[in-house]
């Protein structure tokens, strides 16, 4: 008897079952088998197409995001005004009168020169400035013309570099920041010491120079002091007219010298009285910003002369203290990581120029301090919060040196919102006549990129200055105050 398949049973027969999965094709005509295979292929093909489409959509989204980011970054960069290049300052350096090969000794084509081509770069102004002073002092002690270069962020890039996604000048002429013998200005070092020159002139009068790698001299010494280094280098350079310190070799005066007061300050008695320090002045650009913003950070009497009107011949003595002004240096931003991840982890103390023995606040780190107490100590002295800052300011205001303080100036790289909170906290604690910060200064484009120097000038002239002992910028302010005879009681630390 033949088996009749109704439509329902025919459909059921097409469906695979576990029991008959290996034999169901035997029940179907050959055409049905072919149809089943075609249907299976179609399903697999459809799944494949679906996967491809999904991957393609994901790829297009990623590419779109990348293109959008590139376009957005480009639009952001082109919308930000490019920084100035200070060409007028560089031209003035080129036109210095000592750039004349026919001059008599100790200058001209027969003079003696020192070009420290491996000077620091890609660092803050505080680091660069402290090295600059010692390099110039080495040239002075060895009776050679100091070859001064730009304040350099990058030697290799074009005129602009990126810092925090913003363009900055790759190089700034030193004369945009400072004046004095270091950059070839009068008064000169002395009758036996030639005036400072720039590298372009050095290359002209010294086509054949002796190149010395710093390791050749420094590696023969064990933890040398600044004075030991100066004597060793003076002896090594002795017979050579033109000396260039090899690019790429370590700095002559490295971070270890500047971090150790015992190694750094043995030069202090002579260094502090040398023309390098005593004839130092800030640039006209910096001093103009100081004068223009005087009402911002410490309103002056109408009868008080502007700083720009004081003769430069007075040198360091031009920078008298401003009665009633308290300047505090408060580091923010990436300095937090430096405080904890570098300084605290390595148990590093104050920098050399922040460690004069006569200063009232000394760094003291007990050997048996717990990690928690150690972190708290570094927080208070390196990265204090607003409450710590306000409390410390009150302590200093109540000292004999703090009598009569009326104005506060906050030297800081903190965010505008954070600075507003600090200013409000200071005003709430004491009735200051004025509290201002680096964020309040009105600066032109050229002054904006030398603003650290402007802050240093304000700190240098404050009745009381509160330094960050771990900051080289603070250290240079402390050094200039010490060299100018400011009472040590008026220079404090957190």
Please write out the topology:
Elements: H1 7-14, H2 30-79, H3 87-94, E1 113-116, H4 125-141, E2 145-147, E3 151-152, E4 160-163, E5 166-169, E6 171-172, E7 178-179, H5 199-205, E8 210-212, H6 214-218, H7 226-237, E9 242-245, H8 255-259, H9 261-264, H10 268-271, H11 275-278, E10 281-282, H12 284-292, H13 294-297, E11 322-330, H14 335-346, H15 371-382, H16 386-397, E12 407-412, H17 416-429, E13 434-437, H18 445-448, H19 451-461, E14 462-467, H20 472-483, E15 491-493
Parallel strand pairs: 1-2, 1-9, 8-9, 11-12, 11-14, 12-13, 14-15
Antiparallel strand pairs: 3-6, 4-5, 7-10
Helix pairs in contact: 4-20, 12-19, 14-15, 16-17, 19-20
Number of strands: 15
Q: How many DSSP H or I helices? A: 20
**Outline type:** globular
Given helix and strand content, the structural type is alpha/beta
Backbone CA Rg: 34 Å
Helix content: 40-55%
Task: Bin the strand percentage.
Answer: 5-15%
Rounded to the nearest angstrom, the distance between the terminal CA atoms is 108 Å
Question: What's the main sheet like?
Answer: 5 strands, parallel
User: What's the arrangement of strands in the largest beta sheet?
Assistant: 13-12-11-14-15
Low-confidence stretches: 1-28
Please tell me the overall pLDDT: 90
Oligomer: single chain
């Amino acid at each position: 008897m033949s088996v009749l398949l109704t439509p329902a049973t025919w459909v059921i027969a097409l469906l695979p079952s576990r029991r008959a999965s290996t034999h169901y094709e035997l029940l179907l005509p050959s055409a049905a088998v072919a149809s089943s295979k075609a249907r299976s292929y179609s399903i697999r093909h459809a799944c494949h197409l679906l996967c491809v489409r999904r991957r393609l959509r994901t790829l297009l989204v990623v590419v779109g995001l990348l293109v959008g980011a590139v376009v957005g970054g480009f639009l952001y960069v082109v919308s930000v005004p490019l920084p100035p290049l200070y060409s007028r300052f560089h031209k003035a350096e080129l036109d210095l009168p000592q750039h004349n090969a026919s001059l008599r000794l100790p200058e001209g084509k027969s003079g003696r020169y020192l070009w420290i081509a491996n000077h620091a770069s890609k660092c803050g102004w505080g680091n660069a400035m402290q090295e600059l002073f010692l390099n110039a002092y080495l040239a002075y002690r060895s009776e050679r013309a100091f070859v001064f270069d730009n304040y350099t962020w990058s030697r290799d890039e074009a005129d602009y570099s990126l810092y925090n996604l913003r363009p900055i000048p790759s190089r700034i002429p030193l004369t945009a920041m400072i004046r004095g013998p270091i950059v070839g200005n009068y008064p000169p070092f002395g009758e036996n010491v030639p005036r400072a020159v720039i590298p372009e002139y050095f290359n002209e009068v010294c086509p054949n120079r002796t190149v010395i790698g710093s390791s050749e001299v420094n590696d023969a010494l064990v933890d040398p002091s600044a004075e030991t280094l100066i004597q060793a280098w003076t002896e090594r350079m002795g017979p050579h007219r033109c000396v260039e310190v090899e690019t790429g070799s370590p700095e002559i005066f490295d971070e270890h010298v500047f971090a150790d007061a015992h190694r750094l300050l043995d030069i202090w008695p002579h260094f502090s009285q040398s023309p390098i320090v005593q004839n130092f002045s800030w640039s006209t650009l910096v001093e103009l910003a100081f004068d223009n913003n005087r009402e911002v950070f410490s309103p002056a009497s109408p009868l008080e002369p502007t700083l720009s009107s004081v003769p430069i011949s007075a040198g360091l003595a031009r920078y008298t203290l401003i009665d009633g002004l308290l300047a505090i240096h408060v580091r923010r931003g990436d300095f937090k990581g430096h405080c904890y991840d570098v300084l605290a982890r390595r148990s590093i103390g104050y920098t050399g120029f922040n460690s004069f023995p006569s200063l009232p606040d000394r760094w003291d780190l007990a050997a048996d301090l717990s990690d928690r107490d150690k972190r708290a100590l570094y927080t208070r002295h390196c990265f204090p919060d607003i409450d710590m800052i306000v409390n410390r300011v009150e302590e200093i205001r109540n000292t004999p040196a703090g009598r009569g303080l009326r104005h506060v100036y906050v030297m800081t790289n903190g965010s505008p919102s954070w600075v507003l909170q600090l200013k409000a906290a200071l005003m709430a604690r004491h009735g200051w006549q004025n509290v201002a910060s680096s964020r309040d200064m009105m600066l032109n484009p050229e002054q904006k990129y030398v603003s650290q120097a402007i802050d240093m000038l304000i700190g240098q002239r404050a009745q009381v200055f509160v330094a960050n002992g771990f900051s080289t910028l603070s250290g240079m302010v402390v050094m200039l105050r010490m060299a100018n005879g400011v009472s040590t009681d008026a220079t404090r630390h957190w």
